[in-house]
């Protein structure tokens, strides 16, 4: 079996994305979603139900009495916090293993994924972009999912890839593609296809290092994910060795009309939103 065939088999072996979460995301995408219908979707998963009630009764909300009804908890949390809780819970299980090929500690890739999703939401609000929140958060959160599959393959070829990157002639993903036949963005797109995500999310994941290659209808979404990825690294939520080889965010900042003078405000907004999201997702921010 060739190396490329082994990688394809590894993609096929990825566990499915939780159906309850996908169905809940579809329901939340409707601005007029019905709470009763959403509760019917969520109540079949005991772990999700327990997490929703746990968050609702946490000190973060400081409610005067204990909430024991899933329906009541869903109403208290609202769409945005439910989305963050559900997607974060599903994604954390995918990213929880150490990523040896990228020199990433057990939680570092996960924290980078969450930071990228938060940064994307901050940029969306800052520029008042008309992009679906569900789609953007999901694509940004899962943009590096291909690393989960490629990690062991990268580890086996690490010295070759590292040498190519250190030469200054290749970004990390360019070196991946030359040595392995795929880069982690390619593989991430294939995983998103396997999970039957919408074409918009598949595209944003597959081209988050090359947004110019995205179909025109998904270009802004992909550019936002690409820029958020780079800015997350810039503010300290890096992803090991390949985080040192990010390129091109200057052009994306210019295209999205974000000036140097905006960066201080953006970073402050990001820090505030990251703290809130970590609280909702049950993540240690430090």
Mean pLDDT: 89
How would you sum up the global shape?
A: globular
What helical percentage do the residues reach? 55-70%
- The fourth-level CATH homologous superfamily is Hypothetical protein af1432
Largest sheet: none
CATH class: Mainly Alpha
Count of DSSP-assigned helices: 15
Distance N to C terminus: 42 Å
Order of helix and strand elements from N to C terminus: HHHHHHHHHHHHHHH
**What radius of gyration results from the CA coordinates?**
19 Å
Q: Extract low-pLDDT stretches.
A: none
Tell me the strand percentage band.
Answer: under 5%
Kindly name the structural category. mainly alpha
Describe this structure in words.
- The protein has one domain: Orthogonal Bundle (Hypothetical protein af1432), CATH 1.10.3210.
- The mean pLDDT is 89.
- Helix 12 packs across helix 13 (219-234).
- The relative contact order is 0.13.
- The chain is built from 15 helices and no strands.
- It has 286 residues and is an all-alpha fold.
- Helix content is 64%, strand content 0%.
Keywords:
globular; Hypothetical protein af1432; mainly alpha; single chain; 286 residues
Topology:
Blueprint: H1 3-12, H2 19-28, H3 35-42, H4 46-56, H5 70-95, H6 108-127, H7 133-141, H8 146-156, H9 158-166, H10 172-180, H11 184-194, H12 199-206, H13 219-234, H14 249-255, H15 263-281
Can you describe this structure in just a few lines?
The protein is an all-alpha fold. The protein has helices at 3-12, 19-28, 35-42, 46-56, 70-95, 108-127, 133-141, 146-156, 158-166, 172-180, 184-194, 199-206, 219-234, 249-255, 263-281. 64% of the residues lie in helices and 0% in strands.
């Amino acid at each position: 079996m060739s190396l490329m065939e082994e990688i394809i088999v590894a993609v096929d072996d990825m566990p499915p994305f939780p159906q309850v979460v996908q169905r809940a995301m579809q329901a939340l995408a409707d601005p007029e979603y019905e709470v009763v219908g959403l509760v019917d979707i969520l109540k079949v998963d005991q772990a999700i139900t327990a997490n929703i009630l746990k968050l609702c009764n946490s000190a973060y909300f400081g409610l005067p009495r204990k909430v024991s009804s899933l329906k009541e908890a869903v109403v208290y949390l609202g769409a945005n916090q439910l989305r963050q809780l559900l997607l974060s819970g599903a994604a954390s299980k995918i990213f929880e293993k150490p990523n040896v090929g990228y020199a990433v500690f057990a939680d570092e890739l996960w924290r980078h994924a969450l930071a990228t999703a938060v940064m994307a939401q901050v940029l969306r609000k800052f520029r008042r972009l008309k992009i679906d929140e569900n789609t953007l958060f999901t694509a940004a959160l899962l943009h590096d999912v291909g690393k989960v599959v490629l990690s062991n393959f990268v580890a086996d070829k690490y010295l070759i890839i590292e040498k190519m990157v250190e030469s200054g002639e290749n970004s990390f993903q360019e070196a991946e593609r030359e040595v392995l036949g795929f880069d982690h963005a390619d593989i991430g797109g294939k995983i998103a296809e396997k999970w039957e995500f919408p074409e918009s999310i598949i595209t944003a994941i597959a081209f988050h290092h090359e947004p110019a290659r995205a179909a025109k209808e998904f270009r802004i979404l992909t550019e936002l994910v690409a820029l958020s990825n780079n800015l997350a690294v810039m503010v300290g939520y890096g992803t090991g060795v390949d985080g040192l080889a990010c390129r091109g965010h200057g052009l994306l900042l210019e295209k999205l009309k974000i000036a140097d003078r905006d960066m201080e405000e953006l970073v402050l907004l990001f820090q505030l939103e990251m703290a809130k999201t970590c609280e909702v997702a049950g993540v240690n921010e430090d």
